[in-house]
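Hi everyone, sorry if this is the wrong subforum. Our group has a chain we'd like a structural model of before ordering constructs, and none of us has done structure prediction before. Sequence below.
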Amino acid sequence: MKKILISILFIFSFLISYSNDIDINLSASNLNVNIDESFEMSLSIDSNEKINVDNIKIIGEENIKILGTGKSQSSYYINGKSSYNYKLNYKVMGRKTGKYPIKAEIEIKKRKYQSNELEFDFHKDNNVRKSDKRLYFELNPNKKEIYFGEKICVDYKVITKDYRVDFSESYFENDSNSNFVEKNLEQNIKQNSTYINGEYALEYTLKKVLMTPINTGNISIDSKNLVVSLALSSFRRKTTNLHSEPIEINVNPLPKDGKPDNFSEIVGEFNIDFEVDKTTINYGDAATINIRIYGNTNLDLLDSVIKYIDLRDFRVFETMKKYDEKIVNDQYFAEKSFELIVIPKNSGAVTFPSISINYFDIKDGNYKSKKINKINLNVIPNQDIETNNGYLNDKNQIVIDKVSVNNANLESNYNNNCNYYILKIKKTFIHNLLIVIFLVILIAVALYAIKYKKNTNLNAKILKKIDNISEKEDFFEVLNQIIKEKYNFSIKSYSNQKIIERINDYEIKNKVIDFFEIYNLEEYNNLNLEKLKEILKSIV
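Answer:
Right subforum, don't worry. Here is the predicted structure as tokens:
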């Protein structure tokens, strides 16, 4: 009994000593922090033996922004005992004003340890005006209230009153945005002299970015962190972090009342130019109609101008010739050009129908329509073809004379007297030709069936995998597999914005945007899970 008691005490003392081997301490350079300024936070882990940290979690991370991280480790040997120190350094900003507790949790060999708790007081310093700062970084959107579907242009600017700024090694640490799809337009740095409150300053425009909201309501352009080098003297340089302030954008939803069934998804103001190359053509020839749509409007989802018109009397081939986006006088400008190759099915006077394009007018806040007028064409009938009766006249009839059995090759002898060709073909030639044609068709059908079966089996596997998803992370893996099959690239290598830019199909692009919008929600429930499944199945 005594031996058992000693053994239990030994095991208990061992567990206590093991728990004391690891010490975790969380510290910060400042607990009373201006929300517009960054601060340092350090997590120090001390141990009597080498350890591998399996996982690190910051409890309360939703209240801070981690702008950058660094780590270091060291070891000591004191009084015959080894000591190891692991340190993680964070550059942090507050997300919103208020008091928030922060602590760290680490996992080592499936055992969790927690650090001490720090309480941060994030506040807004209203005493220091931005115009009074000597160096600052800001985002300037051309609009702060828009309708869903509009695009805004945002200038990235650095203003300095004292320092010479070197941008040769500058970079953005967090240049992503959870609420917008972004597209860089101009990235050439432009310098401009200005006066702020009567004081001379230099203003640098680093780039211009187009932003398209993916949600409605009051959403924010996230704070950006810019690392730049300051020239203090000819030989001294100093690297500093500049943080822009988050900017609230009010995104109004499009009204449901009055929305036409054939809404083109165009939001904004635009003009239409069109021209036809000729209005008199021979039967069987084509007229070309060029249409140019341009203005301060989002044309991303306009993929056709003839989708909703009656073309039963024409054969039409539509091609999108040009799509361009740029900034003109600090305003967004988009342009799309379409080419229509129009072939009338009848001769005589025919009319190509007018084209109506429904859109949402952001000035009036109403749905409107712009029209391309109908085009009258004069189609000259072909004298040798009776288009109404559907037969050929005698001069163009093909006359086949008797087949010469003695000739092994295909011949054509022109008879000057009768003005027709005499075809002499060996029967075996026609027989062999028909066999070859049949074999070619058979092979083509077989290849198509193999490919169709392969795609069907693959889609069935993906659909089965979607039904069995239970973890949030698995949705991303399945989407990655689908995009790989359809577009031959991995979404793991790109940001959400780049992924969407690489997808050409507008319908799938919108579904991927919906996917990321739900996937990135902080609150995650069964309803969201089912919505993600529906989106993935529709993409397959």
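For your construct planning: The CA atoms of residues 462 and 478 lie 7 Å apart. The chain has four domains: 22-123, 135-252, 266-380, 455-539.
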